[in-house]
């Protein structure tokens, strides 16, 4: 994948040939990518969606098993679909533009009474939280 770094961390229990094979299943060939780990062994792994819905469960399970086998405490994988609980980039950009407009384009004295509700309506604070 041209959007991944040249080198990245993968579970040691996944063979190179499996990685190559699985990479074609991910949108943009974006394999699971280790992003961060905690001293207790927990890791944050980013992963693109799998193209083929029929293969999704099998591939997802194989990768999650490999991550579990590579964990020092053999902890199970906890997955969270961030697409469902986080705003997309267009929503963040729109909120930022509304915030800029509120802070730059409108005189504060004239909008003081409704400024806080206008700020809330931008969703900016919600998104950065």
UniProtKB/TrEMBL annotation:
<dbReference type="InterPro" id="IPR010569">
    <property type="entry name" value="Myotubularin-like_Pase_dom"/>
</dbReference>
<comment type="similarity">
    <text>Belongs to the protein-tyrosine phosphatase family. Non-receptor class myotubularin subfamily.</text>
</comment>
<dbReference type="GO" id="GO:0046856">
    <property type="term" value="P:phosphatidylinositol dephosphorylation"/>
</dbReference>
<dbReference type="GO" id="GO:0005737">
    <property type="term" value="C:cytoplasm"/>
</dbReference>
<feature type="domain" description="Myotubularin phosphatase">
    <location>
        <begin position="1"/>
        <end position="129"/>
    </location>
</feature>
<protein>
    <submittedName>
        <fullName>MTMRA protein</fullName>
    </submittedName>
</protein>
<dbReference type="InterPro" id="IPR029021">
    <property type="entry name" value="Prot-tyrosine_phosphatase-like"/>
</dbReference>
<dbReference type="GO" id="GO:0016020">
    <property type="term" value="C:membrane"/>
</dbReference>
<dbReference type="InterPro" id="IPR030564">
    <property type="entry name" value="Myotubularin"/>
</dbReference>
